[in-house]
């Protein structure tokens, strides 16, 4: 192997190592962010893995990559299933469980959050209708109810916007529209009958002046 080949191999190995480190850093950052949102850190790491690889990924591979106990991986995959982020899939000829990232998982999470907020507002209405409460308690409940109602409305608007963006991203590109003048010219050209071309008339050549006149 020449020095140039060795240098190329070393450069490729360095890039591969940096790419792996970047992946692991993203997974760990996602885990920390999930933990601040109330999810277990291992659930955040699982989300990071599925965002990168999609799936299907076997239960055994997840446990190995996470360096976690099978019980912990099982608990957190069930949690992510309930949240609508991943789904259990069957692989032909395989007895163990496989998991994949669901299509549009974050839209599903938004839908669940909207439903939770709407349920809370219903609970408050039912409570106020069934039980007389103090003015202070009623005010606190109304404030919480208003928060959930506004949150549900805002999330519905966000959900519609995200769904439209995904629809546009999946649609084939629309060809550039011609100007109105170009369209009128094209329409006129299409409707105007084409006149047959007149046959070309071949003209006789004039006698050359260099010919000698007869005596």
Please explain how this structure is put together.
The chain is mainly alpha-helical and 215 residues long. Among the domains are: 20-103, Winged helix-like DNA-binding domain superfamily/Winged helix DNA-binding domain (Arc Repressor Mutant, subunit A, Orthogonal Bundle); 107-169. It has helices at 3-36, 41-53, 59-66, 70-83, 105-130, 135-170, 180-191; strands at 57-58, 86-89, 98-101. Helix 1 crosses helix 2 (41-53). The longest helix has 36 residues, at 135-170. The mean pLDDT is 84.
Topology diagram in text:
Blueprint: H1 3-36, H2 41-53, E1 57-58, H3 59-66, H4 70-83, E2 86-89, E3 98-101, H5 105-130, H6 135-170, H7 180-191
Helix pairs in contact: 1-2, 2-4, 5-6
Question: Briefly, what CATH class of the domain at 20-103?
Answer: Mainly Alpha
Helix proportion: 55-70%
Q: What is the H/E string? A: HHEHHEEHHH
What's the name of the CATH homologous superfamily of the domain at 20-103? Winged helix-like DNA-binding domain superfamily/Winged helix DNA-binding domain
CATH topology of the domain at 20-103: Arc Repressor Mutant, subunit A
Structural class: mainly alpha
Total beta strand runs: 3
Low-confidence stretches: none
Major beta-sheet overview: 3 strands, antiparallel
Shape: flat
Q: Concise description?
A:
The chain has 215 residues and is mainly α. The chain has seven helices and three strands; from the N terminus they run ααβααββααα.
């Amino acid at each position: 192997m020449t020095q140039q080949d060795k240098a190329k191999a070393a450069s490729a190995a360095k890039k591969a190592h940096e790419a792996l480190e970047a992946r692991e850093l993203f997974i760990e950052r996602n885990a920390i962010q999930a933990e601040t949102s109330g999810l277990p850190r291992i659930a955040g790491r699982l989300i990071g893995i599925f965002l990168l690889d999609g799936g299907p990924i076997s239960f055994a591979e997840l446990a190995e990559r996470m360096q976690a106990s099978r019980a912990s991986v099982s608990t957190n995959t069930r949690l992510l299933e309930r949240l609508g982020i991943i789904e259990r899939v069957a692989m032909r000829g395989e007895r163990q469980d496989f998991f994949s990232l669901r299509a549009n998982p974050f839209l599903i999470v938004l839908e669940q959050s909207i439903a939770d907020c709407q349920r809370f507002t219903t609970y408050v209405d039912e409570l106020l209708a069934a039980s007389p409460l103090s003015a202070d308690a009623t005010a606190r409940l109304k404030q919480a109810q208003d928060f959930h109602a506004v949150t549900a409305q805002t999330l519905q608007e966000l959900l519609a916007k995200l769904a439209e963006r995904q629809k546009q991203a999946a649609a084939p590109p629309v060809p550039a529209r011609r100007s109105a003048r170009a369209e009128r010219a094209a329409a006129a050209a299409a409707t105007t009958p084409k006149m047959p071309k007149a046959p070309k008339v071949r003209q006789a050549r004039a006698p050359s002046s260099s010919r000698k006149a007869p005596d």
